[in-house]
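Q: Predict the assembly, please.
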Amino acid sequence: MDFFVFVDLIGTIAFAISGVLTATKKRMDVFGIIIIAFVTSIGGGTLRDLLVGFPVAWIRNTYYVYFIIGCTILAILFRRKLRHVRTSLFLFDTIGIGLYTVVGIEKGLSADLSPVICVALGTVTATFGGVIRDILCNEIPVVFRKEIYATACILGGVSYFVLLFLTPIPEGIIFVIAGSIVITFRLLAVHYKWILPTIYSKEELENLN
Amino acid sequence: MDFFVFVDLIGTIAFAISGVLTATKKRMDVFGIIIIAFVTSIGGGTLRDLLVGFPVAWIRNTYYVYFIIGCTILAILFRRKLRHVRTSLFLFDTIGIGLYTVVGIEKGLSADLSPVICVALGTVTATFGGVIRDILCNEIPVVFRKEIYATACILGGVSYFVLLFLTPIPEGIIFVIAGSIVITFRLLAVHYKWILPTIYSKEELENLN
Amino acid sequence: MDFFVFVDLIGTIAFAISGVLTATKKRMDVFGIIIIAFVTSIGGGTLRDLLVGFPVAWIRNTYYVYFIIGCTILAILFRRKLRHVRTSLFLFDTIGIGLYTVVGIEKGLSADLSPVICVALGTVTATFGGVIRDILCNEIPVVFRKEIYATACILGGVSYFVLLFLTPIPEGIIFVIAGSIVITFRLLAVHYKWILPTIYSKEELENLN
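A: Predicted assembly structure:
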């Protein structure tokens, strides 16, 4: 199996699980859960494909749809195993953005787009599904929150191109490194409560108008 | 006139009225009402066309736009007749999702898509306009609520394919049956306060975390 | 340089600044600000291009992306000069919708679309970026508010076609007039607290149900 198809599938599983966890937290019914899991999994890739002008993958590829429904049902059945919902949700969401950033960059490269656009597409692919999930579940969307989120995707995407242009590391390995940077950076950032150096003066921070 | 063009027009009228009712409830000005009615009518079909790769119908078909504006103005003038806004809104929205589910399935079939995708497109066509209407009017989106909504569309869509594959009933009649199932099921579900069998244990329902 | 490319760039600057002002008001970090500025600038044009079936401009045009990032960084550095954030935000947003209305109409004409659709596309181009900006920044979206907003775009768009069909004024000048009408009308409307003549009876206004 193609490496990127594999990465895409694992990312799909991670986001489907994150969708199930968010929807069951809201005590949605079983169809609601399937819809949220589906939208979380395919939201980012769908927007990316529309922007680039690719045909939307899941429309023609029924296996993809059955795969998501299957993952969702398994995740519903075994959701008790994921006892600490908050931690599990954070973990699967983080794995999802790491893998989807890489998938988005690769899709951009396959359409001969420039590095800055590829990084943007990686970020869109990674973050948009989670944003829709949160809006539909009436949660504060993850990008609004103070946490490092899209920043991790941008950092991973930039690392990809820096390593590609400045080192002799083979491309396949660079993809693995870039995805790992996204995941590791977000895990560390949330664990150690990292925030970016502030651009605001003390005075500005005191006067939230 | 083509059967599906007819169904589409009736669905458009129903959703335009539901948009007018929601917007006048918020005391929007006349341009605001027209925009909300328009978005409610064309939102679902537009997303469906973008996903499948069809050209967006209303962009090239000016009659469609004038038709919606005309319906909207009539609905504004005669809104007093719809005294019980809450009931009327529910009714027109329900007729809308029934008809648009059928329109979405037919569009999917016309692009040779598989049954599961056709059901998904029917559901998207039926529900997305109402979701945008509610977000723009600052109402809780209808899909968030506990009511049976998307579930009725999925049930109607699945019924269509079950009847198509397992019975000798002609396709045109099956479409009528499928649309009626969506409408009847939602009417009954809301009237009798049906909910789907819960997947949650008693313990989970007590601990909404 | 082509006249419309110039108008588009000025509109882009105005919306990028409005994005920076909204995001810094929320004390977002520097990546967050860049993402909001970018989305505000390209949101409306992107939706318009998807609806018409044009390729999305910024995907293939890297200069556009660097231009927005450059404007954003300048706007961040000089944000102190824009002391009265509320007034500045209103001003740049208003310039943005005026210019983008004109750009949207011109794009519609270039695809041989009818006047009513061109006006709709002008309004979409002008308003959608600001709507996304407000949703992502957790502000009440500007179109929900009581202010004249989309109405100014529709009025400017209709004026364009009235002048084109009924007067001998050259097209280039009509574009300038139409954009000025949008900007002037909104400035005056907000300054003098204009509202459209109400369609509601006294009784209806008292009974907000």
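Chain C has nine helices and no strands. Chain C touches chain B through 26 residues (CB under 8 Å).
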